[in-house]
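Repro:
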Amino acid sequence: MKDRIACYCSGNASRIIKFYEKYEFASFPMEFVFYDGDNLDVVLRINEIDDKLKVIHFENKTKLKGKKLSQEVSDVILKNLEKFKISYMFCFGSMILKSPLINKFENRIINFHPSLLPAFPGLRAIDQALEYGVKYLGNTAHFIDEGIDTGKIISQTVLPIEEFNDYEDVLSLQINMLKNIFIAILNRTIPKYKYQ
């Protein structure tokens, strides 16, 4: 059975939009993008990527807050992952995902975090690293577990501090990471998991 892939995004969904500006959808097909942001222009831009790509727009953010919102987002994502028989999901979202999603999709949800984990987990990772005075910035792709940025590391990218001008210098490195992990999934060279 062919692995099916989805993505969860927040904000401007810029990583996934830039990925598909660089690479053809046919080479890296996804079943859907789950978007929990408030920007309808982003929904339209995702819709323009390819007519086969579904956009699931979560719009209940104003009714819920904190842990209840994270749980609701996680539950809606889980429902769609199961509905579309998704094998892996890439995560560029702002919510902390919760179980049962985390347990049911163990080693199948891949987060892209803008620091060299285990250093600087959580929010404001680039700012944390700059305030600390690091010599290198970077990104970590890791499986999501119950902790905050504590899952098994898949890959990392590194940027010397001398090459840093703004956040985009770090975040743009995630595009190639995404491509390489996507290829590993398509070639079935990423760590195995058990289907539920």
